[in-house]
Amino acid sequence: MRALVCRELSEDFSGVAVIDLPVPEPAPGEVRIRIRAASLNFPDLLLCQGKYQLKLDPPFTPGMDTAGEIDAIGEGVKGFAVGEAVVAGMRHGGLSQYVCVCAKELRKKPENMSFSEAASYQVAYLTAYVALVRRGNLQAGETLLVHGASGGVGMAAVDIGKRLGARVIATSGSDEKLARIEAQGADYVMSTEGGFREEVKALTDGRGADVIYDPVGGDVFDESIRCINFDGRLLVIGFTSGRIASVPSNMPLIKGFSVVGVRAGEYGRRFPEKGEENLNVIWQWAEEANTRPYVHGELALADALVGFRMLENREVVGKLVIRPDL
What we know:
InterPro entries: ADH-like_C, ADH-like_N, ER, GroES-like_sf, NAD(P)-bd_dom_sf, Zn-ADH-like_protein. By secondary structure, the protein is an alpha/beta fold. It folds into 2 domains: about 1-110 and about 295-325, Quinone Oxidoreductase, Chain A, domain 1; about 125-265, Rossmann fold, CATH 3.40.50.720. It contains 11 helices and 15 strands. The strands form 3 sheets. Strands 3, 4, 5, 6, 7, 14 and 15 form a 7-stranded mixed sheet that branches. It has a 6-stranded parallel sheet with strand order 10-9-8-11-12-13, sandwiched between helices. Strands 1-2 form a two-stranded antiparallel sheet. α9 (about 265-270) crosses α10 (about 270-285).
């Protein structure tokens, strides 16, 4: 089979290439999936650069979100059949033609979703759900400010924020992306170019946002602490800007806000029952026809590094999908 393999950690992804590997055999409790689609996530890039909180020793195959068909079943697996369409969330291994996954990590693919849509769903929606519900305690009527709203996790946050009854302000660094964000249901959209503090405060009668969802970090984080409401929650999702920001401790003291870290996968590992509840909720939403991730485009596995560059250069709106069968 063909797989994208990181053979050496490298800033420029020079240690990453598509190579031939043996097709894996499922161990007891596992199934083998013929992958039809796998979405790219920013942590895939960070893993290959050695910058992610999860550290893997090369060689390894990145890829967290996949969808495909079961083509082999290991001993002791119940409830699944060869040929069944499934989705799987994993920490790595998805950017390949086949992958073996513990059956407990599988879910049946919603019939109303394509393989590409299903492969674009779990990481984004689970991240947004854990952030807004479990960590941010977002309430109906509150104002939610979503940064990086043109990305997969940002679009999911806009959707979930509206579901929860919040007023959603969504930002992007590109004016061209704002129309797509508005189409996702945001109440207000604005560019971060030139600053956003005064506009956010004007929209909230000077109070600021109650919850701020920040996968960007850097300058965006710095300005966010100046437009957050008293008792607000600033949710740290990631650092796509490349700079890990810091906050002077007098700012949350004076303004009475909290800085809250979000690691959706780790939350589920620490609290398994709540983790299962989180997945049940988002996949129940996935069964509804109005919950669909936005797929920017599809690439062949041979072009996966092109996708890495597109993601790195902020050229993707929503999710970019790798199709190993192309």
